[in-house]
Structure formats: C-alpha cells, structure tokens
From TrEMBL:
<keyword id="KW-0808">Transferase</keyword>
<keyword id="KW-0012">Acyltransferase</keyword>
<protein>
    <recommendedName>
        <fullName>N(6)-L-threonylcarbamoyladenine synthase</fullName>
        <ecNumber>2.3.1.234</ecNumber>
    </recommendedName>
</protein>
<comment type="subunit">
    <text>Homodimer.</text>
</comment>
<dbReference type="InterPro" id="IPR043129">
    <property type="entry name" value="ATPase_NBD"/>
</dbReference>
<dbReference type="GO" id="GO:0046872">
    <property type="term" value="F:metal ion binding"/>
</dbReference>
<keyword id="KW-0479">Metal-binding</keyword>
<keyword id="KW-0645">Protease</keyword>
<keyword id="KW-0378">Hydrolase</keyword>
<keyword id="KW-0496">Mitochondrion</keyword>
<dbReference type="GO" id="GO:0008233">
    <property type="term" value="F:peptidase activity"/>
</dbReference>
<dbReference type="InterPro" id="IPR017860">
    <property type="entry name" value="Peptidase_M22_CS"/>
</dbReference>
<feature type="domain" description="Gcp-like">
    <location>
        <begin position="78"/>
        <end position="346"/>
    </location>
</feature>
<dbReference type="InterPro" id="IPR000905">
    <property type="entry name" value="Gcp-like_dom"/>
</dbReference>
<dbReference type="GO" id="GO:0061711">
    <property type="term" value="F:tRNA N(6)-L-threonylcarbamoyladenine synthase activity"/>
</dbReference>
<dbReference type="GO" id="GO:0072670">
    <property type="term" value="P:mitochondrial tRNA threonylcarbamoyladenosine modification"/>
</dbReference>
<dbReference type="GO" id="GO:0006508">
    <property type="term" value="P:proteolysis"/>
</dbReference>
C-alpha cells in the first residue's frame, strides 16, 4: 500500500495541527504473495478516490473521528466547525519514491482536487515523511541534528537529519530492504496474513509467529544452523556502513527447504531470522554512533513499517544503552503511523508549506534520493 494523498489545511497559524481524519484502505496482497504493479494500479485507481472521499466526509462531520487520507487543521477547526473546501489551504501528496502506478494515482487525485478548488499542491518525499512523523506524534519533537533509521518495504537507511529539508544518508542497503526480507521470509514459511488473520502485512504476521517460539528449540536450531554452512544465517557487511538483506533472504529460503516443516521448527526459524535481521540494524547503529560522537545528537528516530516491530524496538534501545547513550531519546511513531499512512504526508506538507505550488506539470518519481530534496 503506497500512500497516496494527504489532504490538509495549513492556515498559517502557530496552532498545533490536529488530525481530522486518516483513512487507510488496505489491499490484501496475500493471495498474490506480494505487491504486483498491475494489481497496485487497479487497486489504487478505485481506492484512492474512495479514501479521499471518506477522509473529507469524516472531517466535515460533527465528530472528527480517526479513521482515513488525512486532514490536518489548526485547532480552531476542532470546535465543532465543519470543514468545507474553502477551509483547505493546500493539498499534500506523495511524489515519490515508490511504485509508479501507485504514485500516479495519488497525484492525479490530488491534482484534480487542486485544479477544481484552485488550491496549491505540496509534493512530498515519502521517506522524509517517515523521518518527520515524530514532529506530529510527539509532544516534544526531535531536535536537529538527529539520527533516523528508516526501515520499510523499499528502504533500509541510517540518515542524519540536519534540518527539515537536509538529509545525509550514512548507510543504505546495497540490495534488498529489511521489509522485503520479512515479507519473503513470511512467504517462504507459509505464515498466513491478510484476509481473516489479525495481521495486515507479512512482517507483523512473522513477528507474532516468532513471538511464540520455544526457547529450547531456538537454541538447538541456532546450534544446528551454525554447523551447516549453506543455511547458517549470515551477518552481512560487518564493520561497513552498508546494509544487505539478499543473503539473509536466500539463506532463509534454503533453510525452509532443508528443515522439518513442523510449526515448532518454523517458529524457531522465524525467531532466528528476526534476530539476524535486527542484529544487522543494531550493528550499523553502533557504527554510526561511534562515527558521530562529535555531533550533538539527542534523538534517534526509527520509522517506516518495520519500526512497528517490538523485537527491533527493544534491541535498538539496548544498543543505545550499551553504547553509553542512555540519555538519548529513541522515538518510534505509534503503530498506525509507522506503516504507510496519509497523516504523515499531510503533516510533512505542513512543514514544507513554503514550497506549495500551483504547478500541475510536476511528475511522480519512482527513485528519488532523500539527499536531493
Ligand atoms: O513503510 P511501509 O508501510 O511501506 C513502505 O514504504 O514500504 O513498510 C512496509 C513494510 C513491509 O515490508 C511490512 O512487512 C513491514 O513493513 N512491517 C513489519 C512489521 N509491520 C510492517 N516488519 C516487521 N515487523 C512488523 N511488525
Ligand atoms: Zn513507507
């Protein structure tokens, strides 16, 4: 699910913006095993208009509930006033990076509203929106410069955020993302998600599946894997400021084929996969902490879909503490704002309000470096 359109109002007011609605319509990709561009195009084509319609309806209603696209309004609108198009100052929309089919649908929807209502547009970078989410979810937002760990289906990056618009990528993946590895591992292990299950994505399903692993079986399997060359879970790019998840993905596939398929073994393997995936993140964070000792970093932000993972959350805290950074804040958005949502796009639009434009010729970009904002 790429996120599409955030509709927001940013009257130039110092009032803390409030979210009037946040509609997320999810596509169930469990049948196809992953997001297929053709299906993403079809789905976005029908769901983006519905989500925008619902978001506007909710915001216009008497009770400004949480629920869908996002509408951020200054506090004055929370006093029972109804939202109408005249109250909207600008429309924020994701320009990239991401799947062209998804981005185009969101941009057409936003441009159509902008054209009909004669409103300016704010074109938002998806990963900047993940990094800046705590400005909206935290009472006391992070102070620049801060470190941000962006872990999603498309990215695995450690970034130094120097200002709202200035980012320095300290480490990125040389191949696949951590989210992609979770998705592939869940698929290989046949862990159900979507449909009637409690989990809307494969990563969350794998986390829950691994949480019930039996500790003795985990230890035995760990020993076993260590002795088997071709299925020993790798710790990639040690000592380097770079991530790699393709080796882990391939090894898990081989391990699933080589090991017994009973649930106990599968849960233990899911646990060990998660441990290996997270260990890599912790190692890179340690390296970055050592190399940024001269910077006044008080906050570390971890955001993106994989930041929902509680095993990762605990390990990052432990990593900071072990590095003598007990006083450094570690900020995670609430779960509904870790995975893609329009609220973060609307809010980032607010932070980039000065860049609003009536230019409808701006095109989506599938690849867009965060350093080139
Ligand atoms: O940020 P996001 O919603 O979409 C992209 O921008 O890619 O991230 C989606 C990714 C998927 O790979 C999904 O499986 C993963 O985040 N994810 C998780 C968890 N929740 C979502 N991975 C591990 N544990 C979770 N609890
Ligand atoms: Zn995302």
């Amino acid at each position: 699910m790429a996120w599409p359109a955030g509709v927001h109002s940013a009257a130039i007011s110092q009032a803390r913006p409030r979210l009037l609605s946040n509609v997320v319509l999810r596509q169930d990709h469990s049948a196809t095993g992953g997001i297929h561009p053709y299906h993403a195009a079809i789905w976005h084509g029908s769901n983006v208009p519905q989500a925008v319609g619902q978001a506007l309806q909710i915001a216009a209603g008497p009770s400004h509930g949480w629920g869908a696209s996002s509408i951020l309004m200054p506090t004055k609108y929370m006093d029972g006033q109804s939202l109408s198009p005249k109250d909207i100052d600008a429309i924020a929309v994701t320009r990239g990076p991401g799947m062209m089919a998804s981005l185009s649908n969101g941009m057409v929807a936003a441009k159509t509203l902008a054209s009909v209502w004669n409103k300016p547009l704010i074109y938002v970078h998806h990963m900047a929106a993940h990094a800046l989410t705590p400005f909206f979810t935290e009472e006391s937002p992070p102070a620049f410069p801060f470190l941000t760990l962006l872990v999603s289906g498309g990215h695995t990056m450690l970034v130094l955020a120097e200002s709202v618009q200035k980012y320095q990528i300290l480490a990125t993946t040389s191949d696949d993302s951590i989210g992609d590895a979770f998705d592939k591992a869940a698929r290989d292990m046949g862990i159900p998600w979507g449909g009637n299950t409690a989990h809307s994505n494969p990563g969350a399903a794998l986390e829950a599946f691994a949480a019930a692993a039996d500790i003795t079986t985990v230890q035995e399997l760990k020993e076993h894997l260590r002795k088997q060359k071709n299925i020993a879970l790798p710790s990639a790019m040690r000592g380097q400021l770079a991530f790699s998840y393709s080796g882990l993905k391939a090894t898990v596939t081989r391990a699933v084929q080589a090991l017994p398929s009973d649930v106990k073994t599968r849960r233990a393997l899911a646990h060990l996969f998660q441990e290996a995936a997270v260990a890599q993140i912790s190692e890179k964070l340690r390296l970055v902490l050592q190399r940024t000792l001269d910077l006044p970093i008080k906050d570390v932000v971890c955001s993106g879909g994989v930041a929902s993972n509680s095993f990762l959350r605990q390990h990052l805290r432990d990593t900071l503490d072990a590095a003598g950074k007990e006083g450094t804040r570690l900020l995670f958005p609430p779960l509904e704002f870790c995975t893609d949502n329009a609220a973060m796009i609307a809010h980032t639009g607010l932070l980039f309000y000065e860049q609003r434009t009536h230019d409808l010729s701006i095109q989506p970009v599938a690849k867009w470096n965060l350093e080139d904002l």
